[in-house]
Amino acid sequence: MSIIGIKxxxxxxxxxxxxxxxxxxxxxxxxxxxxxxxxxxxxKIVEGGAYIEADGAAGLGKRRGVKTEExxxxxxxxxxxxxxxxxxxxxxxxxxxxxxxxLDLMPVLYPxxxxxxxxxxxxxxxxxxxxIGKLTLGLTNLGQxxxxxxxxxxxxxxxxxxxxxxxxxxxxxxQGGRVSHGEEVQV
Length: 187
Fold this sequence. Notes:
By secondary structure, the chain is mainly β. The chain is built from three helices and 16 strands.
């Protein structure tokens, strides 16, 4: 796999809708190899009990997610709210942007350094080809001090890897950007 360059990323955003909902800054003044994504929503875990079962003789395992509640969301055209994350707190956060992942690319996320310099850990991952939706990430404060984040702030950078060979497109339950789920069988 190789990483595609920023000019190709921007071309695919404009011509193929690779990422929708971007701020103007990323298309007019991109740098490096990736595009910054912004904090769009914050979800608090309000009920635990998550469980992930192993695949057994009967087939794919069951899983049960946590229950979440949206506590902040980016508002169009308004001065954005600030969200304070205290030491030890953990939230699920979503990007503003929607990713439309084609079958020849695999996006990988990287936290922006301004987060870890403030004591925040952003838990990121790769995204499978075929996934469409906002991205959900984990955010926790490992530092000893509170950190304020404004909705709409850039929190991570997405880089696209070119895939060689055949793939099977994403068909999981989080398609569309779902944050949490009840009990279900893994796909």
